[in-house]
Design goal:
single chain, about 150 residues, alpha+beta, Cyclophilin, nine-stranded antiparallel beta sheet, 2 helices
Length: about 150
């Protein structure tokens, strides 16, 4: 299974770690297919670290502070499988403490500052194309749509 993450800066393509993080992948795919991510902003961009999106409070006209919203439920972390290294281009689940993820995710910009995230946040996929797009995302840029390919 793969995804196209279409942004206002271009398209990034990703593959999922279905064997290593099946619940996280299933959750992300479900939300993407429902259109949950359509029109959300990259609300957190930290150079040489990560870009983060998936907060419904980042949608134009939404109430609430960006970075504080979710889908209304929490999912468990899956950090004991393989592929749990935060290298450049890795998709990982954001959370506010163990087993509190939901919809917010981040994409790693650089391994240099992310080793401490290994074993703490669930890596559930990796970009296979569009690293140039990743490098050009700025805070406030949009996630136009995420298309899942089964």
């Amino acid at each position: 299974m793969t995804a196209e993450i279409i942004t206002n800066k271009g398209t990034m393509k990703a593959m999922f770690f279905e064997q290593d993080a099946p619940l996280t992948v299933a959750n992300f795919v479900k939300l993407a297919k429902e259109g949950f991510y359509d029109g959300l902003k990259w609300h957190r961009v930290l150079p040489d670290f990560v870009i983060q999106g998936g907060c419904p409070n980042s949608r134009d006209g939404a109430t609430g502070m960006p970075g504080t919203g979710g889908p209304g439920y929490k999912i468990p972390c899956e950090v004991s499988g393989g592929n749990q290294y935060h290298d450049k281009g890795v998709l990982s689940m954001a959370h506010a403490g163990r087993n509190t993820g939901g919809s917010q995710f981040f994409v790693v910009l650089s391994r240099a500052k992310t080793a401490h995230l290994d074993g703490q946040h669930t890596c559930f996929g990796k970009l296979t194309d569009g690293l140039d797009v990743l490098d050009n995302i700025r805070q406030g840029d949009s996630i136009d749509k995420i298309i899942i390919h089964d």
